Amino acid sequence: MAVDFESEMYKNQRLKCENILNKVQKNVKGHFPEIYHSFEMGIYIKPQNYFVVYIFRTNEQLMTAQQNGLLEKINLFHKKQLRKNHYPIQGIKDCVFASQEKCEEEYNGNWFYYFK
To answer: At 57, is the secondary structure helix, strand, or coil?
Structure first.
């Protein structure tokens, strides 16, 4: 029985990227307790099409974080963690911010439609 090399290569790349992103999100959320939740969207095999979302609980918390420079600090820390964990260079880009409150109000809590 032949091994499907592309499938195996894809699986390894996907697992590697998934592990890095999980570690980075954990580190960022641990460093910034203001963050309520996080998740990533995209295709693991193509890091350039991938992005991480850090979520604040309320619109007010998100707005305050933007005004006081916290979003920029989180973004810089996020990119530093990606580099530190050897995430593919083409995928190291700014993270995205949102509020749970807005997603619930406008999209019934459905993040897929929020970003569509």
So the answer is: coil
